[in-house]
TrEMBL record:
Keyword field contains RNA-binding: no
InterPro entries: Cu-bd (IPR000428), Heavy-metal-associated_CS (IPR017969), HMA_Cu_ion-bd (IPR006122), HMA_dom (IPR006121), HMA_dom_sf (IPR036163)
Keywords: Copper, Metal-binding
Residue stretches making up the HMA domain: 1-66
Pfam families referenced in this protein's UniProt entry, alphabetically: HMA
Protein's name according to its UniProt entry: HMA domain-containing protein
Molecular function per GO: copper ion binding
BP GO terms, sorted: copper ion transport
NCBIfam families in alphabetical order: copper ion binding protein
Length: 71
């Protein structure tokens, strides 16, 4: 299962690492690939992780989730 998470507010590699770590800690997440240029994260999961949980993890660090799509 894979989701695309579109994120605003990232400006550097430190931001990318924070977002990657925040999403990566969620139960069910296998891997996270964050692109600063594309302003998105590709989240691989072995079970359903709610959009709300992903959004909360990202927004806890001060970034905004603009949309989440199932890919």
């Amino acid at each position: 299962m894979r989701k695309l998470v579109y994120i605003e507010g990232m400006s550097c590699s430190h931001c990318v690492n924070r977002v990657k770590g925040a999403i990566g800690e969620l139960e069910g997440v296998i891997s996270v690939d964050v692109s600063l240029d594309e302003k998105r994260a590709i989240v691989q999961m072995d079970r359903e992780v709610s959009d709300e949980a992903i959004k909360a993890a990202v927004e806890e660090w001060g970034y905004s989730v603009t949309s989440i799509e199932t890919a």
